[in-house]
Amino acid sequence: MLATGAHVYASANPGCLVQVATALRRQKQPLPALHPIELVDASIRDVGAAGLLRRARR
């Protein structure tokens, strides 16, 4: 995931979110996570990438 250069990742599976977050923290490379519904909501409300990243970092 880190090799992709992504600034955020999404998963609908809570277990996946927890496992990925834990692995990334262990590598001292945390990435913000979103649920796919948050991506849909941002698209509907025309939230730009900066707003989406702010939301993910909360």
Task: Note down, in words, how this protein is organized.
This protein has helices spanning 14-26, 36-44, 49-56; strands at residues 9-10, 33-34. It starts with 8 loop residues before the first strand and ends with a helix. α1 links the parallel β1 and β2. It has one domain (8-56). The chain is globular, with a radius of gyration of 12 Å. Strands 1-2 form a two-stranded parallel ribbon. By secondary structure, the protein is mainly alpha-helical.
Topology:
Layout: E1 9-10, H1 14-26, E2 33-34, H2 36-44, H3 49-56
Parallel strand pairs: 1-2
Question: Kindly state the mean pLDDT as a whole number?
Answer: 89
- Helix tally equals 3
Give the helix/strand class.
mainly alpha
**H and E order:** EHEHH
Q: What's the gyration radius in Å? A: 12 Å
- Going across the major beta sheet, what is the strand order? 1-2
Number of strands: 2
Features:
single chain; 58 residues; mainly alpha; two-stranded parallel sheet; 3 helices; 2 strands; 7% strand; globular; Cysteine-rich domain
Q: TL;DR?
A:
With 58 residues, the protein is mainly alpha-helical.
